[in-house]
Amino acid sequence: MKRLRALLCGAATAALATAGLAAFAAQQASGASADATALSNRWYAAAPYLMPHDNNPPDAGAIMDATGLKAFQLAFILAPNGGGCSPTWDGTSPVSSDTAVASVINAIRAKGGDVSVSIGGYGGTKLGQTCSDAASTAAAYQQVITKYQLKAIDFDLEEPEYENTAAIAHEIGAAKILQQNNPGLYVSVTTAGTADGTGWFGKQMLNEAKSQGFTPNNFSIMPFDGGFNGAAAQTSALTNFNSILQSTFGWDAATAYAHEGFSGMNGRSDTGEYFRQADFQTVLDYATSHHMDRFTFWSLNRDRQCTPPDNNGQTSGTCSSVAQSDWDFAKYSVKFAGVTPPTTTPPTTPPPGGSCTAAAWSSSAVYTAGNTVSYGGHTWKAKWWTQNETPGTTGEWGVWQDLGAC
Predict the structure, then answer these.
(1) What is the distance between the alpha carbons of residues 57 and 44, in angstroms, rounded to a whole number?
(2) Residue 389 annotated to the active site
């Protein structure tokens, strides 16, 4: 699972500078603002991922203003690229001397928000691989918690680290130590999702947590990049994962759901799966009706429309490759937190069809089975009678079949 975390990562540090940060310059040398106020755990559970260094970082304050979002999951803390047991951003920027990410955090907190920090991810070398034991791994992460005065942290344990039993023992052991040494710390553990819930290595990770007597706020799976197709496949995986949690920890279904989380990918995934707004709504309904603990996604860097909207059938780290308005997907996180996002008016005209030969889709036209239209650079075929149903926005069971890019 690439998740585009290691892709399209350019020199974007300059993009960290946003309006209003000058007021925090005096605080940058020592880290994040000392007057940070913890949010409710529900906000940390709803925090979408944001890369502050790469993939054209968006302005967090603008997202907060547009959507009502209050929490962000900043990614990723890794071991230094040259080796060692000290925390860095993306393997290159030492936490100890960081001022850029601290500025982002301060700007978010100045607007009443907060952050969680995610460690691990798909690419790079993880501290669990380079530190000698759980205690030294925890000490490295404690530097991050202390510098940024964190109230929440995410352990993103996936390939290739979660195939290393010693590294996973270090990470789970470190998570337990941090939980004990930082009372009230919200801890999530995120791992790969499969149709069965999670795979062999994910189950081994859960068994490691059980053997160490560690229970985080939630175990979240990522149901994408594994042959998924829309929301129905994702909710099925979440149901199966709930059964795994029950059998591993001896929980009943309700307790398992209360310790279960969803981490999705908005738009086009690395393997060409599509998760549109309607899919997010379906999974959100599932998560809330089952009283799940977490609902997040990868990533805010991608929560904007590409040009052209389908990005010529490619996956991007900086846009979603589906038709959308900016921050459409962030609003589902806001809803999970229990807040109603501000109302916005969606575009009334579809994006251009490019080189498509079929007639452009019209919201007022009536279509019957077999009719074809162009929309967003793709050709679509109606499965049955329809009117005013936008191609590509109704999920797996929608009326429109995507015939591919024109």
Answers:
(1) 20
(2) no
Please pick, among 158, 171, 260, 273, the residue that the annotation labels catalytic. Answer: 158
Name the residue type at position 209. Answer: A
**Cβ 395 vs Cβ 231: under 8 Å:** yes
Residuewise pLDDT in 10s, the chain (406 residues):
445 644 444 333 334 433 333 333 334 444 665 456 789 999 999 999 999 999 999 999 999 999 999 999 999 999 999 999 999 999 999 999 999 999 999 999 999 999 999 999 998 999 999 999 999 999 999 999 999 999 999 999 998 999 999 999 999 999 999 999 999 999 999 999 999 999 999 999 999 999 999 999 999 999 999 999 899 999 999 999 999 999 999 999 999 999 999 999 999 999 999 999 999 999 999 999 999 999 999 999 999 999 999 999 999 999 999 999 999 999 999 999 999 999 765 444 444 445 678 888 887 788 888 888 888 788 888 888 887 788 876 444 578 888 887 7
Cα dihedral 187, 161, 272, 221, rounded to 10, equals -30
Distance CA 244, CA 194 (A): 12
**Whether 79 contacts 119, CB under 8 Å:** no
Cβ-contact 392, 351 below 8 angstroms:
no
Detail the DSSP E strand segments found in 20-125: 49-50, 71-78, 88-89, 93-94, 114-120
pTM score, whole prediction = 0.81
d(CA 135, CA 85): 11
Long-range CB contacts (within 8 A, 24+) of 320-325: 320/266, 320/267, 320/268, 321/267, 321/268, 322/266, 322/267, 322/268, 322/274, 322/276, 322/376, 322/392, 323/350, 323/351, 323/375, 323/376, 323/390, 323/392, 323/393, 324/267, 324/277
Q: Structure tokens of 133? A: 């034991």
Secondary structure E strands in 246-353:
260-265, 267-268, 274-275, 294-298
Place of tokens 């793709």: 378
Under a CB-based contact definition with an 8 Å cutoff, are residues 316 and 53 in contact?
no
246 φ/ψ angles, rounded to the nearest 5 degrees: -60, -50
